[in-house]
Amino acid sequence: MMKFIKATKMKLLVLILLIVFLFGCTGVDVSNQNVSNNSYSLLKVHFLDVGQADSILIQFPNGETALIDGGNREDGRFVVEYIEKMGISRINYIIATHPHEDHIGGLPEVIKSFDIGKVYMPNKTSNTRIFKNLLEEIKNKGLKIIQAKGGLSIIDTEDLKFTIIAPNSEKYDETNEYSIVNKLIYKNTSFIFTGDAEKDSEEEMIKLGYNLKADVLKVGHHGGRTSTNYEFLKRVNPKFAVISVGKDNDYGHPHKEVLKRLDKMGIKVFRTDELGTIIATSDGYKINFNKEIVKNNDDATKNERDKKIIYIGNKKTKVYHTTTCKSLPKQENRVIFNSKEEAEKAGYRPHKNCIE
Amino acid sequence: MYRIGGIFIKGIIDRFEGEYALIELENLKVINILKDNLPQNAKEGDVVVIKDNECYIDIEETQRRKEQIEKIFEDLFEG
């Protein structure tokens, strides 16, 4: 009998403690929310205007930050200054989706300039100088590279999850397929960032049964036709799509097939070549896109950042040609131009047969 | 590097996009070159030399770079 009473009393005590604890907790929660409403309860995703390249800055509601890719090499300074302007001194997670220059180009400068937490990369190297620079900066900071693999969790709390859902194979034919794909969930809102992942990786993500549903899709490979296939798009079923792409790029990105697929599903498309830097803000329930787009680049720096084709001028005729023209001048009469503008400025005119 | 009066380009193929190869030159600039101007078997990571009308892959330098970079990568990489 005594034992029974003791047990009941004990239960009662636990119950009272539990009630006090719960109420206490709620109180703390509410006041916390009030205090930090402006900064810490919002998720901000910045799709930086780095021309024909990718760079995405994430400010998590817990105060941490991530940078997915760093634009071209020439964008390094711009990316660093943008992050500084946000008052950020530490980047908790660097995601180098895959080792092409239009994704890792600005990262050496970023790593040099900030306090860095962890670096995630796929198991794929490149022979370029920029890739070697990136490795050297990682080494200089005493950092290591964490291998990115589908299923790896970066942030895992009840309200906020940041995970890696690709790559899911050890080897691919195309470097783009090694791209790290991230899913970000904040309460009822979600994002998918695809790097340059193409058809093989998209099919793997579907086959492996990842929950791909997301409100916002960062469209793969600047809108290239071999990414964002219909089956994948159907699973993601986004309300918004963001395309990170350079104005008048030489590759026809975004391809019209992709724009058609997006349009057919009634998805609202935002493009960095039209809007500049795009910022999405989520309070956990609703995602807002900023309308006052930050137009940061004057055209001169922008042109410089875009990739160029070279042209061959004929010193004698003052006509310039593409490198594939059938009527190129003799070796001794050749002069190289980095752009049409450069040729025109030097007083050369386009060759009708090879330049439109 | 450019040389007036003839073409001399040396660089590393960063990637292919559509009909172009993107080449990282020794001055770190990345330029577009039509794929047709490169040897047919050229692939990502190859060190290519375009000299006047000839174009070739420097196999030895390509291999040297690859080994050097993979070594640094392996030391940093936690699989």
Question: Key terms for this structure?
Answer:
heterodimer, A: 356 residues, alpha/beta, 8-stranded mixed beta sheet, 7-stranded mixed beta sheet, 11 helices, 31% helix, globular, B: 79 residues, alpha+beta, 5-stranded antiparallel beta sheet, elongated
Summarize the structure.
Chain A is of the alpha/beta class and 356 residues long. Chain A contains eleven helices and 20 strands. The mean pLDDT of chain B is 91.
| Spatial arrangement of strands, main beta sheet of chain A | 6-5-4-3-2-1-14-15
Terminal CA distance of chain B: 38 Å
Which geometry of chain A do the CA atoms define? Answer: globular
Largest sheet of chain B: 5 strands, antiparallel
Distance between the termini of chain A: 100 Å
Q: What Rg of chain B do the Cα atoms give?
A: 14 Å
Description:
The complex is a heterodimer of chains A (about 350) and B (about 80). Chain A has about 350 residues and is α/β, with parallel strands linked by helices. In chain A, α8 links the parallel β12 and β13. The longest helix of chain A has about 35 residues. In chain A, about 30% of the residues lie in helices and about 25% in strands. About 10% of the residues of chain A have low confidence. Chain A has an 8-stranded mixed beta sheet with strand order 6-5-4-3-2-1-14-15, covered by helices on one side. Chain B has about 80 residues and is an alpha+beta fold. Chain B is built from 1 helix and 6 strands, in the order βββββαβ. Chain B is elongated. The chains are: A alpha/beta (about 350), B alpha+beta (about 80). At the A-B interface, α5, β6, β16 and β19 of A face β1, β2, β3, α1 and β6 of B. β6 of chain A pairs parallel with β6 of chain B.
